[in-house]
Amino acid sequence: MVEFITMAPTFGDGQYVGTSNYNAQRLDAWSTTAEREPTLEYISRIAQAAEKGGFGTLLLPTGSSCLDSLIIATALIPATERLRFLFAVRPGFTAPSVFARQFASFDYLSGGRALVNIVTGGSPAELAGDGDFLDHATRYRRTDEFIRVLKRLFSEENFDHEGEFYKLKNASLYPKPIQKNPEIYFGGASEAGQAVAASVADVYMMWGETLDNIRERIGEIQRLAAVRNRKLSYSISFQVVLGDTEEQAWENANHLISKADPAVIQKKAEASDKGESVGLKRLHQLMLDSKENHFRIGPNLWAGLTQVLSGNSIALVGTPDQVADRIVEYVGLGFDKVLLRGFPHLETIEAVGRDVIPRVHAKLQKNEIPSERGVLH
Question: How confident is the model over 208-258, as pLDDT tens digits?
Fold first, then answer.
C-alpha cells in the first residue's frame, strides 16, 4: 500500500507563487510578509488536516528561511495522534551524536513517530551563510559518514569510530529510539548522491519528473543498490493543482503564477545556472524545454512552477481522477511513498485527502496499475 506524505510550509504560504514579497535568497520560501505566516496555529491546522486526510507523514524542511524542523515537530506532538514527523537535518551543523539524542528524545516523547531526512546540500550562498564551505563531493562523503554513525548509535550499545569527519570514543545512545532501525530518508540526483543513497539510505526521495525520466532514474538506483546487496524504498514528490474539470485545473495552475515577479524568475534562472544541484538543473531543463508548450511536459504534468520554485516544483494538474491516475502510474514504477503539496497548502491537502487519496487506494486495490511495476521489483 502506498503511503502519502505532505510538507509543512514552515517558511510561509499563499495563493500566489513568485510574487515580489518572495524571499530572494531562498526561492521556495516567502519572507515575513508572506500571505500566511508560518504560525504554530496554521502549521497545527495543516498537521491535523493531513492526519484526517490520510497522510501518514509530515515533512518539516530545513533551511535558513525555515522555522527549525525539530522544534516545530516537537510542538506538533500534542496536536496530533498518529502522524509521523519527518524532520530534515543537515550533516555538518549538528554532530551525529547530538542529533541522535534529539531524535531519540523526540521518538520517545511522540511514541515512536520520528523520522529523519538527511539533506546534504542547499544553495552555496545559503550554506556559506551557515558556515559550511565544503565542496560538493566532500559534503556527500560527510553525509555518508554521518548516516553510518547515526545508524550505529541507533543500534549498538557502545563503539568507537574514527573517520574523515567524526571521531567518537566509547559512543552510546540512551535511550534508544522506540522504533527499531528508524528509516533514513535521503535524496540526491548526482552520482555522489546516488552512491550515498544506494549505500546507506533506506528511503530514496525524488522530485517528480516525466515518467520516462523517472523510470530511468529509479532503475539506476535499484541497480546501484542491488550491487551493494541492498533494497530501498522510494518516495516521489509533486505539487498538486486540482479542478472540477481539467480546463479549470489548468486555469488554477496559471493563477498560481499570474503575479510572478520577473525579477524572481530571473533570479531563479541565475541560481539554476550557478548552482551545484543536479536535481535542480534537471527540473530547470524540463521547464526550458517545455516553455513553448506552456510548460506542459506530459499528461497532467506541468513545469510552470519551476520558473520560480527551487526544489519540488513539478505539478500534477487535473481533476481528482486524473491526478489519481497519474499517481498510480508512478506507483507502478516502484514508488511506495508519494509526497504531495500545493498552494495554498492547507486547502490543497484538504482537497487531496478528500478527493485524491481515496481514489488512489481504490485504484490500487483493483490492481489498476501498469504491469511494468513487476519489472522493477
Answer: 999 999 999 999 999 999 999 999 999 999 999 999 999 999 999 999 999
Q: pLDDT tens for residues 277-311?
A: 899 899 999 999 999 999 999 999 999 999 999 88
C-alpha cell at 262: 520577473
Task: Taking residues 146-163, report their average pLDDT.
Answer: 97
Distance CA 147, CA 191 (A): 18
Q: What CATH number matches the domain at 3-235+318-376, 2.60.120.330, 3.20.20.30, 3.30.470.20, 3.60.15.10?
A: 3.20.20.30
Question: Position 339: which residue type?
Answer: L
For residues 207 and 285, what is the distance between their CA atoms, to the nearest angstrom? 14
| Helix H or strand E encompassing 341 | strand 337-341
To 5 degrees, how large is the angle CA 216–CA 213–CA 288?
150
* Phi and psi angles of residue 312, each rounded to the nearest 5 degrees, phi first: -60, 105
Cis preceding linkage at 38, omega within 30 = no
End-to-end CA distance of the chain: 15
H or E element, residue 5: strand 3-7
Every domain of the chain and the residues it spans: 3-235+318-376
The cell numbers describing 334, all together, are: 516502484
Cα separation, 46 vs 49, in Å, equals 5
